[in-house]
Amino acid sequence: QVQLVESGGGLVQAGGSLRLSCAASGLTFSSYVMGWFRQAPGKEREFVGTISWNVNFANYGDSAKGRFTISRDNGKNTVYLQMNSLKPEDTALYYCAASRTYSYDARRYDYWGQGTPVTVSS
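^ that's the sequence the OP posted. Answer follows.
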């Protein structure tokens, strides 16, 4: 039914940029808050950011540090994560997720993508 498919991950040098995409299907996209999370091996899942169904409002975790920007295109059922000034500490598997409520708590998110890997070299 519901599918969230991330793309855009890869290898990048420190200081570089990547834009991740998450294409959603099987849900009423505009009714969901969309979030980005990341998880490195052996570490807990970390909140990156979220954007409301109101596309002009977003919230970021401290991991973003002013470097990341979330946007969404409801016409394309797609949410984006623009990542600039990447650091090796950003290396992780990045997930997008959908929630009925605006939250940074992963438990509030009902649907998850499979993740796209991001590796930042020194």
